[in-house]
Design a protein that fits this description.
mainly beta; Cathepsin D, subunit A, domain 1; 3 helices; 12% helix; Aspartic_peptidase_AS; aspartic-type endopeptidase activity; aspartyl protease; disulfide bond
Protein backbone atom coordinates (compact mmCIF):
# COMPACT_ATOMS: atom_id res chain seq x y z
CA UNK A 1 0.00 0.00 0.00
CA UNK A 2 1.38 3.37 -1.02
CA UNK A 3 1.62 6.05 1.64
CA UNK A 4 1.11 9.70 0.93
CA UNK A 5 2.39 12.51 3.13
CA UNK A 6 -0.10 15.31 3.61
CA UNK A 7 1.00 18.91 3.82
CA UNK A 8 0.75 20.14 7.42
CA UNK A 9 -1.66 22.96 8.07
CA UNK A 10 -0.27 26.41 8.78
CA UNK A 11 -0.42 27.05 12.54
CA UNK A 12 0.99 29.59 14.93
CA UNK A 13 3.52 28.78 17.66
CA UNK A 14 0.72 28.96 20.24
CA UNK A 15 -1.38 26.48 18.25
CA UNK A 16 1.53 24.07 17.89
CA UNK A 17 2.14 24.36 21.65
CA UNK A 18 -1.49 23.54 22.43
CA UNK A 19 -1.33 20.58 20.03
CA UNK A 20 1.85 19.24 21.66
CA UNK A 21 0.35 19.57 25.12
CA UNK A 22 -2.74 17.67 24.00
CA UNK A 23 -0.63 14.89 22.47
CA UNK A 24 1.31 14.62 25.73
CA UNK A 25 -1.96 14.11 27.62
CA UNK A 26 -3.09 11.45 25.11
CA UNK A 27 0.18 9.51 25.41
CA UNK A 28 0.12 9.65 29.21
CA UNK A 29 -3.43 8.35 29.28
CA UNK A 30 -2.57 5.52 26.89
CA UNK A 31 0.83 4.41 28.22
CA UNK A 32 0.94 5.82 31.75
CA UNK A 33 2.52 8.89 33.27
CA UNK A 34 6.23 8.32 33.94
CA UNK A 35 6.21 10.07 37.33
CA UNK A 36 3.48 7.74 38.59
CA UNK A 37 5.70 4.70 38.09
CA UNK A 38 8.50 5.01 40.61
CA UNK A 39 11.60 2.94 40.21
CA UNK A 40 10.98 0.30 42.85
CA UNK A 41 14.08 -1.89 42.58
CA UNK A 42 17.72 -1.44 41.69
CA UNK A 43 20.97 -3.38 41.50
CA UNK A 44 24.48 -2.12 42.18
CA UNK A 45 27.11 -4.42 40.70
CA UNK A 46 30.14 -4.81 42.93
CA UNK A 47 33.87 -5.41 42.58
CA UNK A 48 35.82 -8.00 44.58
CA UNK A 49 39.07 -6.36 45.68
CA UNK A 50 42.27 -8.20 46.58
CA UNK A 51 40.87 -11.73 46.70
CA UNK A 52 37.78 -11.32 48.90
CA UNK A 53 39.40 -8.67 51.13
CA UNK A 54 36.68 -6.12 50.41
CA UNK A 55 33.70 -5.55 48.15
CA UNK A 56 32.81 -2.16 46.75
CA UNK A 57 30.06 -0.62 44.68
CA UNK A 58 29.53 2.86 43.29
CA UNK A 59 27.35 5.86 44.01
CA UNK A 60 27.18 9.42 42.72
CA UNK A 61 27.35 12.64 44.70
CA UNK A 62 26.50 16.20 43.81
CA UNK A 63 25.36 18.33 40.88
CA UNK A 64 26.50 17.37 38.35
CA UNK A 65 26.72 13.84 39.80
CA UNK A 66 30.22 12.39 40.05
CA UNK A 67 30.70 8.67 40.70
CA UNK A 68 32.78 7.29 43.58
CA UNK A 69 33.57 3.74 44.64
CA UNK A 70 32.62 2.91 48.22
CA UNK A 71 32.89 -0.18 50.40
CA UNK A 72 29.42 -1.52 51.22
CA UNK A 73 29.38 -2.17 54.95
CA UNK A 74 26.42 -3.58 56.90
CA UNK A 75 28.49 -3.26 60.08
CA UNK A 76 28.29 0.56 60.23
CA UNK A 77 25.80 3.28 59.32
CA UNK A 78 27.69 6.32 58.01
CA UNK A 79 28.47 7.43 54.48
CA UNK A 80 31.79 9.20 53.97
CA UNK A 81 34.25 9.91 51.20
CA UNK A 82 37.79 11.24 51.17
CA UNK A 83 37.77 14.96 50.39
CA UNK A 84 40.02 17.01 48.13
CA UNK A 85 41.80 18.39 51.23
CA UNK A 86 42.62 14.93 52.57
CA UNK A 87 46.22 14.94 53.76
CA UNK A 88 46.60 11.50 55.36
CA UNK A 89 45.73 8.04 54.00
CA UNK A 90 44.36 9.23 50.64
CA UNK A 91 47.24 8.60 48.24
CA UNK A 92 46.10 7.58 44.73
CA UNK A 93 42.44 7.67 45.85
CA UNK A 94 39.82 9.59 43.81
CA UNK A 95 38.83 12.55 45.99
CA UNK A 96 35.54 14.39 46.40
CA UNK A 97 35.80 18.11 45.65
CA UNK A 98 32.98 20.05 47.35
CA UNK A 99 33.45 22.98 44.97
CA UNK A 100 32.52 20.74 42.02
CA UNK A 101 28.90 20.44 43.20
CA UNK A 102 26.42 23.32 43.03
CA UNK A 103 24.16 21.61 45.59
CA UNK A 104 26.85 20.93 48.21
CA UNK A 105 26.30 22.28 51.73
CA UNK A 106 28.88 22.25 54.50
CA UNK A 107 27.28 21.42 57.86
CA UNK A 108 30.32 22.86 59.68
CA UNK A 109 30.23 19.94 62.12
CA UNK A 110 33.18 17.70 62.96
CA UNK A 111 32.90 14.04 62.02
CA UNK A 112 34.91 10.99 63.01
CA UNK A 113 34.34 7.26 62.95
CA UNK A 114 36.33 4.30 64.23
CA UNK A 115 36.42 0.79 62.77
CA UNK A 116 38.32 -2.30 63.79
CA UNK A 117 40.76 -1.55 60.97
CA UNK A 118 41.21 2.19 61.44
CA UNK A 119 39.64 5.63 61.65
CA UNK A 120 38.42 8.43 59.40
CA UNK A 121 37.84 12.07 60.35
CA UNK A 122 36.67 15.27 58.71
CA UNK A 123 33.45 17.28 58.63
CA UNK A 124 29.78 16.66 57.89
CA UNK A 125 28.06 17.95 54.77
CA UNK A 126 24.98 17.29 52.71
CA UNK A 127 24.30 16.85 49.02
CA UNK A 128 22.36 14.78 46.50
CA UNK A 129 23.40 11.11 46.59
CA UNK A 130 22.35 8.60 43.92
CA UNK A 131 22.74 4.85 43.75
CA UNK A 132 21.22 2.15 41.55
CA UNK A 133 18.57 4.53 40.22
CA UNK A 134 17.57 5.88 43.63
CA UNK A 135 18.20 9.38 44.96
CA UNK A 136 18.26 11.13 48.33
CA UNK A 137 18.39 14.90 47.95
CA UNK A 138 19.77 16.03 51.32
CA UNK A 139 21.92 13.11 52.39
CA UNK A 140 24.24 13.85 55.31
CA UNK A 141 27.72 12.38 54.81
CA UNK A 142 31.26 12.88 55.96
CA UNK A 143 33.99 14.52 53.92
CA UNK A 144 37.16 13.12 55.44
CA UNK A 145 40.53 14.84 55.53
CA UNK A 146 42.33 12.13 57.51
CA UNK A 147 42.05 8.37 56.97
CA UNK A 148 44.02 5.59 58.65
CA UNK A 149 46.66 3.98 56.49
CA UNK A 150 45.30 0.98 54.58
CA UNK A 151 41.65 1.80 55.19
CA UNK A 152 41.24 2.94 51.57
CA UNK A 153 42.81 1.20 48.61
CA UNK A 154 42.46 2.74 45.15
CA UNK A 155 40.03 2.98 43.42
CA UNK A 156 37.90 3.11 46.62
CA UNK A 157 37.14 6.61 47.90
CA UNK A 158 35.00 5.91 50.96
CA UNK A 159 32.43 3.76 52.68
CA UNK A 160 28.65 3.39 52.64
CA UNK A 161 27.26 2.18 55.96
CA UNK A 162 24.15 -0.01 55.71
CA UNK A 163 23.37 -0.39 59.40
CA UNK A 164 20.70 1.51 61.34
CA UNK A 165 20.71 5.19 62.29
CA UNK A 166 21.12 4.40 65.98
CA UNK A 167 24.74 3.31 65.39
CA UNK A 168 25.64 6.17 63.02
CA UNK A 169 28.53 8.24 64.38
CA UNK A 170 27.06 11.26 62.60
CA UNK A 171 23.55 10.61 63.88
CA UNK A 172 22.32 11.00 60.30
CA UNK A 173 19.72 8.76 58.68
CA UNK A 174 21.50 6.24 56.43
CA UNK A 175 20.88 6.38 52.68
CA UNK A 176 19.04 3.04 52.58
CA UNK A 177 16.88 3.87 55.60
CA UNK A 178 15.63 7.07 53.96
CA UNK A 179 14.62 5.11 50.87
CA UNK A 180 12.69 2.60 52.97
CA UNK A 181 10.98 5.33 55.01
CA UNK A 182 9.93 7.16 51.83
CA UNK A 183 8.61 3.91 50.29
CA UNK A 184 10.99 4.25 47.36
CA UNK A 185 11.47 0.47 47.22
CA UNK A 186 8.99 -2.11 46.04
CA UNK A 187 9.84 -4.10 49.17
CA UNK A 188 11.95 -3.11 52.23
CA UNK A 189 14.61 -5.67 51.35
CA UNK A 190 18.36 -5.54 50.68
CA UNK A 191 20.33 -8.53 49.42
CA UNK A 192 23.98 -9.33 48.72
CA UNK A 193 25.42 -11.81 46.27
CA UNK A 194 29.18 -12.05 46.90
CA UNK A 195 31.72 -13.82 44.72
CA UNK A 196 34.62 -15.76 46.25
CA UNK A 197 38.14 -16.44 45.01
CA UNK A 198 39.35 -18.49 47.95
CA UNK A 199 42.63 -20.29 47.16
CA UNK A 200 42.62 -19.06 43.56
CA UNK A 201 46.31 -18.59 42.79
CA UNK A 202 45.88 -16.29 39.79
CA UNK A 203 43.17 -14.06 41.22
CA UNK A 204 43.46 -10.48 39.99
CA UNK A 205 43.43 -7.40 42.20
CA UNK A 206 39.97 -6.54 40.92
CA UNK A 207 37.45 -9.22 40.02
CA UNK A 208 33.65 -9.31 39.52
CA UNK A 209 32.22 -9.04 43.03
CA UNK A 210 28.56 -9.94 42.70
CA UNK A 211 25.62 -7.63 43.27
CA UNK A 212 23.82 -5.53 45.86
CA UNK A 213 20.06 -5.64 45.30
CA UNK A 214 17.88 -2.83 46.63
CA UNK A 215 14.15 -3.27 47.05
CA UNK A 216 14.10 -6.95 46.10
CA UNK A 217 15.91 -10.28 46.33
CA UNK A 218 17.09 -11.67 42.99
CA UNK A 219 15.33 -15.04 42.78
CA UNK A 220 17.76 -16.24 40.10
CA UNK A 221 20.53 -16.27 42.71
CA UNK A 222 19.01 -18.66 45.22
CA UNK A 223 16.76 -21.72 45.49
CA UNK A 224 14.04 -22.53 47.99
CA UNK A 225 12.30 -20.06 50.25
CA UNK A 226 13.79 -17.21 52.23
CA UNK A 227 13.66 -17.73 55.99
CA UNK A 228 12.79 -14.40 57.60
CA UNK A 229 14.00 -14.02 61.19
CA UNK A 230 13.09 -11.22 63.60
CA UNK A 231 16.03 -9.20 64.89
CA UNK A 232 16.52 -9.84 68.62
CA UNK A 233 17.88 -6.29 68.95
CA UNK A 234 16.05 -3.90 66.64
CA UNK A 235 17.55 -0.82 65.10
CA UNK A 236 21.27 -1.35 65.61
CA UNK A 237 23.42 -3.89 63.79
CA UNK A 238 22.05 -6.68 61.59
CA UNK A 239 22.06 -9.22 64.41
CA UNK A 240 20.65 -12.74 64.20
CA UNK A 241 20.64 -15.57 66.77
CA UNK A 242 22.69 -18.61 65.79
CA UNK A 243 20.65 -21.76 66.40
CA UNK A 244 22.86 -24.34 64.71
CA UNK A 245 26.39 -24.57 63.32
CA UNK A 246 27.52 -27.19 60.82
CA UNK A 247 31.05 -27.27 59.41
CA UNK A 248 31.93 -29.81 56.71
CA UNK A 249 28.90 -31.91 57.67
CA UNK A 250 29.96 -31.93 61.33
CA UNK A 251 27.77 -30.37 63.99
CA UNK A 252 29.42 -27.79 66.24
CA UNK A 253 27.93 -26.74 69.55
CA UNK A 254 26.28 -23.32 69.43
CA UNK A 255 25.87 -20.87 72.31
CA UNK A 256 22.42 -19.96 73.60
CA UNK A 257 20.64 -16.78 74.64
CA UNK A 258 22.35 -13.49 73.99
CA UNK A 259 25.67 -15.30 73.50
CA UNK A 260 24.26 -16.69 70.26
CA UNK A 261 23.75 -13.26 68.70
CA UNK A 262 25.90 -12.72 65.61
CA UNK A 263 26.23 -9.65 63.39
CA UNK A 264 26.14 -9.99 59.62
CA UNK A 265 28.96 -7.68 58.53
CA UNK A 266 29.89 -7.26 54.86
CA UNK A 267 32.72 -4.94 55.85
CA UNK A 268 34.96 -7.58 57.40
CA UNK A 269 36.58 -10.78 56.17
CA UNK A 270 36.91 -12.32 59.63
CA UNK A 271 34.73 -14.52 61.82
CA UNK A 272 34.78 -13.47 65.46
CA UNK A 273 33.28 -14.80 68.66
CA UNK A 274 34.01 -16.42 72.03
CA UNK A 275 37.35 -18.31 71.71
CA UNK A 276 35.91 -21.69 72.72
CA UNK A 277 33.27 -21.68 69.99
CA UNK A 278 35.53 -20.23 67.30
CA UNK A 279 38.20 -22.83 68.04
CA UNK A 280 35.65 -25.60 67.68
CA UNK A 281 34.46 -24.22 64.34
CA UNK A 282 37.91 -23.99 62.82
CA UNK A 283 39.00 -27.32 64.27
CA UNK A 284 36.79 -28.86 61.58
CA UNK A 285 38.93 -27.32 58.83
CA UNK A 286 42.30 -28.57 57.65
CA UNK A 287 43.23 -25.18 56.14
CA UNK A 288 42.97 -23.12 59.34
CA UNK A 289 45.10 -19.96 58.90
CA UNK A 290 47.14 -18.49 61.73
CA UNK A 291 44.64 -15.83 62.81
CA UNK A 292 43.39 -14.80 66.21
CA UNK A 293 39.62 -15.33 66.09
CA UNK A 294 38.80 -14.64 69.73
CA UNK A 295 37.12 -11.39 70.74
Amino acid sequence: MSLLRSKPAQQSAEQWGAWAKNQKTVLEAKYGHGSLHKRATGTNYMVNQNGDSSYYGSLAIGTPPISYNVILDTGSADLWVAGSNCTIGCDDVPLFDPSSSSTFQNESTAFSITYGSGQAAGFLSQDIVQMAGFEVENQIFGVCVQVSSGLLTSPVSGLLGLGFQTIASSGATPFWQTLVTENAWDSPVMAFHLTRYLNVSNVRTLEPGGSFSMGFANSSLYTGDIDYVSLPIEGSYWILPITEITVQNSSVSAPSGSESYAAIDTGTTLVGGPPSYISEIFAQNSWVPAWDWGL
